[in-house]
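Deviation from plan, reported transparently: zinc ion complex.
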Amino acid sequence: MRVIEQLAELAEVDRELVTAADELGQIDARAGGDPEALRLEAHRAELEAEAARRTAARRTEELELEALGERRRHQERALYDGSVRHPGDLQRRQHEIQGLRQLGATHEERVLAAMEAEEAAQAELAAAAEAARATLARVGERRRADAGRRPQLERERAAAAIRRDRLVAQIPPAALRTYARTAQHRSPAVARIIHGTCSGCRLPVPARVLDQARRDELAVCETCERLLLL
Ligand SMILES: [Zn+2]
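Because the crystal trials were delayed, the predicted structure below was used instead.
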């Protein structure tokens, strides 16, 4: 095998190694907890607390309405059981009952408003809980897929590393150094000459460089500096 062919294979192996490392990095990042799922869960918990506050507020209003009704019934009983005889006292109590009725009517509206607010909070909570559940399910599914993919990626990476070691042992050190320098700023470091054009930068390769490639010397693209395989 020509040196440039070995270098082209090395570039391919390096590309596989980078791809595997990238994918493993993404799997690791996903294992660290999904930010969207965490955000949705925090939002759900917030709405749950809000719904609980609304329920407590509705209960308080209901208790107050009940207390008002109880006070009114107490006055009515006193009015009709004959225990109040003094006309001034009777009038005072009738007046108070009237006031309690009005207060009760106003309070019923407050109870209704509290019930509506509670229902709205419950509906918002239900929607947020569903969104959080769906995202968690999706995250779980991806984690399971990741868990299945990881060993395969690790095997591929290990196999590529072995192939790389074998290749490197066969390639002359000077060519390896040139490759390493190019690979620092060009990926892939090796390009093909196709119809007289560099496949890396798509610009024509000068005749002099083409000649070098034909003579199996290490030819370098003058534009993108990639090593050229003919
Ligand atoms: Zn080029």
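The CA atoms of residues 65 and 133 lie 38 Å apart. We consider this an acceptable substitute for the interim report.
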